[in-house]
User: Fold this.
Amino acid sequence: MNDTKLRILDAAERLFAQQGFDVSIRAITDEAGVNLAAVNYHFQSKEALLDAIIARRIEPVNKRRLEMLDAIEARTGDRPLPLEAVLEAFLAPVLEAPFEHFKPLIGRMYSVPEEFIKRVFHVHLAPIVVRFDAAFARALPDLPESERIWRLYFSIGAMVHVMNWSRVLRPISNGVLDPSDTRALMRRMVAFAAAGFRAPVVENQPVHRGTN
Assistant:
């Protein structure tokens, strides 16, 4: 990757993470020290630039996720997979990603237009979700599919919340809790998600609306 393209990616990632996706291309070029033509040449649009940023950060994370899951499956053989180990493989590479702006960037990603999120999901995340859903099915073979998907959905939501809002943990805990301790954070996230996956199945109940 040439130096100009790398400077654009670094500058855009930094600004998107700090300010959101309304940042102008002009602000990105000023931050990167390049001209507008360079951005247009390498990326054509702001969405293409964002897609390139996500790809370069999420691909190594997903690679690590799959390496961890492959190792779990190799150790376990045909037995049910250990739930906590599968959750750690799914969560830890994200929560422990060393990239400074990765966590707030992914958290902010959910504020961009829905069609873009759908495309990002199908390109970068859907294969991982499918693979891990199969692993969760092996870990909890008696859990109905619909419940399993709900619980995976809630776990992803909790992960995104932690990535985007960990900065509020210290003030709401009066400084007692440290969000920078990623190993401690990950252990608690795994325990929290595992409890959710193992919770009793909630049967559909009719909604009784009160009257005034």
